[in-house]
Structure formats: C-alpha cells, structure tokens
Amino acid sequence: MTQRLVLASSNAGKLREFNSLLADFGFEVIRQADLGVSDAEETGLSFVENALLKARHASQVTGFAALADDSGLVVDALNGQPGIYSARFAGQPTNDTANNAKLLAALKDVPTEQRTARFRCCIVLVRHPTDPVPLIAEASWEGQILTELQGQQGFGYDPLFYVPSHHCSAAELAASEKNRISHRGQALQRLRALLAA
C-alpha cells in the first residue's frame, strides 16, 4: 500500500528526485503547494533546524507524515557561504541565474585549487507534527566551483559544481547517476536505511 508523504517544498526538481528515489519504497511524494500549504519561514541557523521547521509545518497543516530537506552549497573560499541561504543568495524571489552570477562574481579572483566546495543535505521525516524522534539523514557531495556554467541538466548551482570523480559538472550528469551520487541521493539512501531499520 502506498503511503502519502508531503514534501515541504514547491521545487519541482526536488519533487522529481524524491519520487524517483522513494517510489520503490512504497511512498507517493506530493508537493505541499498541491495541498495548499505555504512555505514555512526558515528561521533556523543550520540545515537540520530548517529541515525540521519545514517538515513540522507541512505535517501540522496537512495531517500527513512530512518530508523536508534543507540543502545548500558550502564554498570554502567564501567561509561556508551561501550555506543555508543558497536558494536566496541573490535575494528574493529565488532565482538560479542570479544566484549563479553572484557566486561567479564572488569567486572571480579565486584560483582553481581554492574553489573547493560541497553540497550539504539534511533530510527530515516526521510522522506527525510533534514527532519527538524524527528521522534525520545527512550527507555531503564534494566538488569544486567552475569559472563558467556547464551543462543543461539539474537545477540550482549544478552547472557550476564540478564533480571530480566524473570529470564534469553536476548539470552534465544523467539524472539517474546524479540521484545515485549527489548529496540528496546519499542522504535519501541513509533515510531509506533508517526507514528499513
């Protein structure tokens, strides 16, 4: 029997990834926007705090179990920025093109060997709004920031994120491969293991 999970995000790219990675686990993931839920205010100071805020909010409004992730790009040369502010790095409303342009400008004079970065992901699943033991899964994906956009796949910072193991940007990876090796893919595998435990 399929169990409905509310995804505390209106991001269509995330919805595709989550449905693809959890379909064989008996979950049907539905965007909160499709159930009339507005975004929670992200007032946390870490990926974990923000993911918890979003999941509890979606569960409270819908009455369903809820899934939330808070992900971001952590760039060493920028002291960890944009971090939890990755989606709104260039301001509101969120805009991938503007975010990528701001990142390139911030790293303009930084040499290749110092452009190390990682995507971080924290996924939280709450069974109900006051779940005292939410499932929490975290993962990182190491890479470097390119000097120009490469590739058409993915979303967000993918065209600027160089994946050393595959000698290409995240936006040049096939979706299935990205799902397997990305920060979100790794965190979801950890979540699946927690669900199976």
Helix content: 25-40%
Give a short account of the largest sheet. 7 strands, mixed
What order do the SSEs take from the amino end to the carboxyl end, as H and E?
Answer: EHEHEHEEEEHH
User: How is the largest sheet built, in terms of strand order?
Assistant: 2-1-3-4-5-6-7
**Number of E-type strands:** 7
- Give the CA-based shape: globular
Distance between the termini: 19 Å
- CA radius of gyration is 17 Å
Quaternary state, please? single chain
Q: Estimate what percentage of residues fall within beta strands.
A: 15-25%
The chain-level mean pLDDT equals 92
Low-pLDDT runs of 5+ residues are none
Summarize the structure.
This protein has 197 residues and is an alpha/beta fold.
